[in-house]
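Proteins fold reproducibly. Take a tokenised chain:

. . .
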Amino acid sequence: MSLKADLLSLSSTLDQMLERLEGAAEEVRGTDSDDLLGAIYDVERHLRAANRRLSRTIRGEL
């Protein structure tokens, strides 16, 4: 597999992880586990930043 294809696959995986995190946030919002929401949003923020950086890398360097 080429490097670009591998990086695109990683980006797709990050997209899937973000979707799952959004589902997790919806699941815990308003429950006794509501305190997890901040941690979930923190992870989501970092993954979004990583995915943006990866996208810029793919567009700019390959």
Q: What stands out?
A: The chain is about 85% helix and 0% strand.
